[in-house]
């Protein structure tokens, strides 16, 4: 009889739990999500989730990291920087305007504010890959070398985040386009596309 | 014998408590601040603070509202929009880089994220007056009419907030100046000053 392989079995459970977390986030949203529901969907024990992750927010974060790690975060490059940024900014604004996605991000932002280790993880594993993808697109678009791309990329996402977090204005497609126009004036009027 | 005036006495206590809160925030910072210390400094009872405000975060918020309401939030107008924005942005970046002020803002941001009523109060009483002051300066600086000033003002503060909250980069004077240069390119190259 072959010896069982606990490492492989653990990896299968881990995958099942992360997949279940993502599916339930889509179906019910963060607030309604429970560790019990994740365990039931994944065919795992609640205790396994608590032992491996510690609780709901950590397993959700890992499920989201996993999406970024396995997904394609690269921006389209049609040769038209303004059009490509519009797509990305409209999509980002729509995500923040969606009550279900917004609740997840809000909950994770609270965790991030309260926990330095969590803040570092969110920044390096979730945020940085997405910001870097936009930086790559700006670089390919011929943004002049004297523009600091780290500052430029936050010129795009900072205002959206500010408006969402502090509820200072509507998150609409019209807003997205006005923002892109200002950003393009800042960096792109000298870019080649 | 004249009847005592409880309304006036209450107003004196309220002022003493808010003044004590601000003084202690400056001296010890948010994390170390306790309702007991505020009460002792103000010569009031802890129960009064709990009864009127409910707890530490609410009395701190009221103390900060009070600063904005009584203080002068107008921007300098030297006729040089870039120079005036630089002053404001450098000061804002320095505030966010200060560990003590940063801790207060961080704690209030957590409250804001968790409580819709608090979020509305913070926005309308604390944030809006400051954003409006910058809008007024932009308007006086001759920013073209087709620039949406609500979007423009968040183009200034959104990136700072993003960088501070998500710890994506250093909060330095050099950063402040680079940000102002991008913002000026977005809105100001067509402004008159």
Explain how this protein is built:
Two copies of one chain form a homodimer. Chain A is mainly α. Chain A is 76% helix and 0% strand. Chain A has nine helices and no strands. The mean pLDDT of chain A is 88. Chains A and B meet through helix 6, helix 7, helix 8 and helix 9 of A and helix 6, helix 7, helix 8 and helix 9 of B.
Provide tags for this entry.
homodimer, 193 residues, Arc Repressor Mutant, subunit A, 2 domains, HTH-type_TetR-like_transc_reg (chains A, B), AcrR family transcriptional regulator (chains A, B)
Structure summary:
The structure is a homodimer of 193-residue chains. Chain A has 193 residues and is mostly helical.
CATH architecture of the largest domain in chain A: Orthogonal Bundle
Give a count of the beta strands of chain A, DSSP E runs of length 2 or more.
Answer: 0
Separate helix tally of chain A: 9
What order do the SSEs of chain A take from the amino end to the carboxyl end, as H and E? HHHHHHHHH
Shape of chain A: elongated
Structural class of chain A: mainly alpha
Tell me the β content of chain A: under 5%
Helix share bin of chain A: over 70%
Average pLDDT reading of chain A: 88
And the CATH topology of the largest domain in chain A?
Answer: Tetracycline Repressor, domain 2
- The end-to-end span of chain A amounts to 63 Å
The interface involving the most residues is between: A-B, 41 and 41 residues
Counting copies of identical and different chains, the oligomeric state is: homodimer
